[in-house]
Amino acid sequence: MRGKGKEGERRNTDQIAEVLSRPPAIGGSILRLRSEPQSPMNLEFDWTIAEIEQPKWWEKNAPNMIDIHSTQEFLSALSEAGDRLVIVEFYGTWYASYRVLFPKLCRTAEDHPEILFLKVNFDENKPMCKSINVKALPFFHFYHGADGQLESFSCSLSKVSNFKIQVFLLLSTPQVIG
After folding, report:
1. If exposure means fewest CB atoms within 10 Å of the residue's CB, which of 21, 108, 116, 153 is most exposed?
2. Cα–Cα distance between 15 and 38 in angstroms, integer?
3. What angle do CA 133, 169, 58 make, to 5 degrees?
């Protein structure tokens, strides 16, 4: 391996050492150590920081949360739910109140793995949402598997306690427990 010196002449590997390292969290870096006769050692650092795209806040799901992207996915998820309680969240990514409400819903989903949560982005599924009378956001439908809708309502941050009460009541109903 050879490198350039001060006047542009080539020097041997005895005079220039290059060390390459790639720390996994940073994405990569190059460390060059140059040792020239009768001069102190020079250190040069070239860093390359790899951007890792983080999921958007509405893409972070509990294990029992499924993103729905079409009417067919919605109908399939309901039919595959069997006797489970299914809570469908209709949301808009632009709705600030839902952004605050979403972590509470994720916690509810984590606390109740027996419930299936379906998340429907209103903007991606407007025709379906309008056909099932979703007019305000965030809006929730509660289903008992494919057997039918049990409840529906709009829920703001101030009404999250009502949402939790509804979950408790529906889980306590013998038909839902299965």
Report:
1. 21
2. 11
3. 55
- As a whole number of angstroms, the distance between CA 68 and CA 58 comes to 12
Q: Which two tokens stand for residue 112?
A: 């109740």
Phi, psi values for residue 119, rounded to 5°: -110, 125
**Cα–chain-centroid distance for residue 54?**
8
Is the CB of residue 166 less than 8 Å from the CB of residue 151? yes
| Tokens, residue 25 | 């969290």
Exposure b/e, 6-35, CB count within 10 A at least 16 = b: eeeeebeeeebeeeeeeeeeeeeeeeeebe
Entry pTM: 0.64
Phi-psi region of 177 (alpha: psi -120 to 50; beta: other; left: phi over 0): alpha
Return the bridge partners of 33, or none.
17, 43
Amino acid 58: pLDDT: 81
Report how far residue 21's alpha carbon sits from residue 70's, in angstroms, rounded to the nearest whole number: 46
Alpha-carbon Rg for the chain, nearest whole angstrom, is 28
Q: How far apart are CA 141 and CA 77, in angstroms?
A: 14
3-state SS class at 115 = coil
